[in-house]
Write the structure tokens for this entry.
Amino acid sequence: MDAHVAQASPPARRPAAGLTVPTSQADDAGGDARATKGLHSLLMARATGLPNDDLFAKMLVSQAAAQSALPAGLGLEPGEFHALMARHFPGFNLPAPLAHAPNLGERGAEWDELLALLVEHQGDADASESWMALIVATACMGGDHLWQDLGLWSRADLTKLMADNFPGLSALNTLDMKWKKFLYKQLCDRIGVYVCRSPSCEVCADYAKCFSNEA
């Protein structure tokens, strides 16, 4: 796995035009929370009852409020993004300029490897899971915990995402390792790169960095 741009500098986070949290109470945290829940409710009112509806809705709300590392359209190509919206939230229209694939620069090879790993472990390999694989690979380019870079609302959301969409990977994470570290460890194991010299995770001095609770 190639070493690329450091994760310490995640993509710039700006609200996406056309899908914005109301600003009448921008200085009021309670108002922001109500606006977030309101937008989530609007999306879920259009939801079709598919397993990933709630997860996609949370990502869209967070991306609109600049609370994730995902670019506009969750990092999908415009056609893919509009297909996602039509399948999960029919009638909730977003303008085409919102969606664009990320410019990965030198991290393209890294993204490709992550995507291949996720696709290999998809569940039913339907369109929803294919979109999720692209979105998760893109979020891994961010610099926070993966659930935060995805714009999810808790680590439990990410645990559900992985179990529902990538059950093979979920089953491998028996020690509840942090998901981003776990995914990169799978890539390192594949090519025989063992950056950790500890004989097991349980006795490693850095155990807390990989397995501690994610705030």
User: Anything to note?
Assistant: Residues 29-211 form one domain. The mean pLDDT is 78. The chain has one domain: 29-211.
